[in-house]
Amino acid sequence: MTWSKRIFDLFFASLLILLLLPLFLGLLVWLLIRQGRPLFYVAERMKGVDQPFDLWKLRTMTVVEDDSGVSGGDKVHRITPAGAWLRSKRLDELPQLWNILRGDLSFVGPRPPLRQYVEQFPELYTQVLKSRPGVTGLASLVYHKHEGLLLSRCDTPEETDEIYGRICVPRKAQLDLIYQNHQNICYDFDLVFQTIGLLFRKH
User: Fold this and answer.
1) Of 47, 57, 137, 170, which has the fewest CB atoms closer than 10 Å, so is most exposed?
2) Which DSSP category does 61 fall into?
3) pLDDT at 51 (0 to 100)
């Protein structure tokens, strides 16, 4: 990560935390009333082939004892009404500003993968994770909707894992490497504004 990208992340993460703190506290109270504790979902993700970290989100699903793998159609029944609303506006990702401050994430980059896929495709992720993982990115913008459609048709965790590993991982990696080859601050601004624009167009 370049020093300019890190300064970009630190400045805007700090600014957004200050600006959005009342909204964030209000969401916590609302979630506590609507669905109770725990308020946060914390899961291991990878920022390097051998570098795990804890990714923070607001909880959007019912809690189960053994939860693993990406979210497909087999997990749709666990999404709470409040969680569905949070996801539709990506407000569940607000706690990731803390991950940005810690240096686990950048605003823009590949989405941080699960350990199982890094171990399954080590050579691929060795290249992809040369870029700091991000909250949004080229793959998120271009492929997120198609990935959601593919995984929504999966009825079991095994089917979700097979489709994600065989189809989604390589296609997202192609886009992540395109971003990596063209990465600069202006491009990051462009992708951030595209993400904001997409949210407004959806709603």
Assistant:
1) 170
2) B
3) 97
